[in-house]
Amino acid sequence: MKHKYKTNVLTRLGLLATLTLLAFPTGAAEQDNIPIHFINGLPFFAVNIGTVRTEMMFDSGGPLGISVPESTIARSGSVTLLPETAKFRDIHGKVYEVPMLMAKDVVIGNTILPPIKGRVHVQWGGTPDDADDALTRARKSGAFGLAAFGERPIMLDYAHATMTIYPAGQGPQPSDAHWHALHLEFGKEGPYVILFVAGKPLKFVLDTGTPSTIVKIETLRSVTSGRCDTGVDAKNCDPDLLTDVRDSSGHQLGALHAHPVSLGGAPFDGLLGASFFSGRRVVFDVVAHRLLIAAQDEAARTQ
Questions:
Q1: 172, 155 in Cβ contact below 8 A?
Q2: For residues 133 and 135, what is the distance between their CA atoms, to the nearest angstrom?
């Protein structure tokens, strides 16, 4: 009888453990496909921070981990303010200084993330300031940065409105068909690549929080100067179209339409925004120092 009772107890404990694993996220065992939606072309997804479920914009520009508004900090039960501040400047040159924080119990989809160091949220950059604008309202919920994912590669697929979180060391590889690798660095500007435009090396930050590709006015003019001055198509020539864009290996990446913007003393030449991400699948692998890209139709055949 005792043996039968012990067997029943062990069976029930095993069943309970199985149900627990099914009911609660377990983190990094498998890739996790997260639905995203867009407001004015910028990506948002659902995030659990302690007891709060909210939606945040994914903003890869800059070294951001997470930016949490005060209302979420107060209700979450899992965010701690730190005795230090963060000072940063937006693309318009405005400087902000806000308290730093540590966010625990952060879950996206089925992925449990380790504690994330971040800052108290303020509305930075962007336009407009109209309180009734949908994007302005949505951005008040905070932002999630690439640094929050640690060693996990992530793939953005705007065409299918998904973000895939891979376990460390997994995901598409440069040897896989149709994928092309660019060298990726992650500095105080955030993730960036060096692209060659008309033979000149330009530093581009990969910024999912920007709706279009923008380039410093003086940089844009230096690489397009004279292109639209002569020829039979001069009157139809777009002076803001970067027609010869290559990576360091000479691989042709296609044309990019850039908006000239005054970026002051920014330590980069431009930002690759939503117009860059919308036409391709993109994998950020910060640990491996690579950005993998594939055209939508080609990448689909490898899945």
A1: yes
A2: 6
For 223-239, give the secondary structure using H, E and C: HHCCCCCCCCCHHHCCC
C-beta separation of 180 from 252 below 8 A: no
- Which one, of 165, 114, 109, 111, lies nearest residue 284 by Cα? 165
Q: The tokens of 246 are what?
A: 């290559």
Cβ atoms of residues 193 and 70 within 8 Å = no
In this prediction, residue 254 carries a pLDDT of: 84
pLDDT of residue 55: 96
How much is the pLDDT for 96?
A: 86
Q: How long a stretch of residues is the chain?
A: 303
- Which of 202, 198, 185 minimizes the C-alpha distance to 289? 185
SS3 readout for 33-64? EEECEEECCEEEEEEEECCEEEEEEECCCCCC
Q: Which tokens hold the place of 178?
A: 């149709």
The structure tokens 């690759």 sit at 272
Residue 151: what are its φ and ψ, rounded to 5°? -90, 0
Specify the pTM. 0.83
Please provide residue 246's backbone torsions phi and psi, each rounded to the nearest 5 degrees.
-135, 160
Tell the burial category of 49 from Cβ atoms under 10 Å away from its Cβ (0-12, 13-18, 19+): buried
The span from the first CA to the last CA of the chain, in angstroms, equals 53
Look at residue 303 in the predicted model and tell me its pLDDT: 40
Burial class (CB in 10 A: 0-12, 13-18, 19+), 227: middle
The single-letter code of the amino acid at 230 is: T
Task: State the average pLDDT for the chain.
Answer: 85
Tell me the per-residue pLDDT of 177-194, one tens digit each, with 9 for 90 and over.
899 999 999 998 899 999
Which stretch of 103-107, 112-116, 196-200 has the lowest confidence by average pLDDT? 196-200
In the chain, what are the domains? 32-165 (2.40.70.10), 180-300 (2.40.70.10)
